[in-house]
Design brief:
224 residues; single chain; three-stranded antiparallel beta sheet; three-stranded mixed beta sheet; alpha+beta; 5 helices
Length: 224
């Protein structure tokens, strides 16, 4: 499983990261032109993804996963859970090829040369944004996360049931490490998705248009 830090990157030494660019595919050049003029950008959410009629552009299972394992008696317990309903999401790709272009009917792309700086600027423009995470999606045949230890060794499970208190939720998040936010079925693997997730303190049910000219300097327009 991919690793990530739970804390912000603040250390007493300077540290640089050489980043690969990612590409925001667009089906009309006017959206790219609008971005490079005013910083206008549409940021979506899982609720929108789940309701796209096109299977390759949407995914009804976004944010969902199973987690569980065996107890001492060998009985298996799994819980279906979901997350991300309090987040804004933006999907990009790490590689442009014919298949992904066809999936999204792309005519052009915004090449994001510094994904992290870009995401931090966008975060300033999103309502109620508290923080976020970025990274490549994980592709699997199943949306299942298995415990590495017996059920009884996890404090947030009792008699095979999730203990839904603050300590339980914190321990649960430590175990899942936002895995479900980046989990996709194998059929989407060719899309090489790199995802931005901005968490808020509200439920997010609709897309949001930001005006973020500060993000333009990290980007360039690519014709397809």
């Amino acid at each position: 499983m991919n690793q990530y830090t739970l804390l912000s990157l603040s250390y007493p030494v300077n540290w640089a990261i050489r980043r690969d660019p990612v590409f925001r595919l667009l089906d009309d050049e006017k959206w790219a032109d609008n971005f490079f003029k005013t910083g206008e950008l549409l940021i979506s959410c899982f609720d929108k993804f789940k309701n796209y009629p096109d299977e390759m552009q949407g995914d009804k299972e976004e944010g969902e996963a199973f987690i569980g394992g065996e107890d001492a008696a060998g009985n298996q317990h799994f819980i279906l859970y979901d997350s991300g309903n309090n987040a804004f999401i933006m999907s990009t790709t790490t590689r442009i090829d014919k298949q992904v272009v066809d999936d999204f009917k792309a005519k052009c792309a915004i090449k994001i040369n510094n994904p992290t700086e870009f995401a931090l600027e966008v975060a300033k423009k999103l309502p109620f944004a508290l923080g976020g995470i970025e990274g490549s999606c994980v592709y699997d045949e199943h949306r299942i996360l298995n415990f590495k230890k017996k059920m009884e060794e996890y404090a947030f499970f009792k008699d095979g049931k999730f203990v839904n208190d603050r300590l339980g939720r914190d321990a649960f998040r430590e175990q899942t490490r936002e895995y479900e936010l980046f989990l996709k079925r194998e059929k989407y693997k060719h899309q090489n998705e790199y995802r931005f997730v901005w968490f808020t303190d509200k439920i997010v049910k609709d897309s949001y248009i930001v005006q973020c000219p500060e993000a333009i300097e990290f980007c360039e327009k690519i014709k397809i």
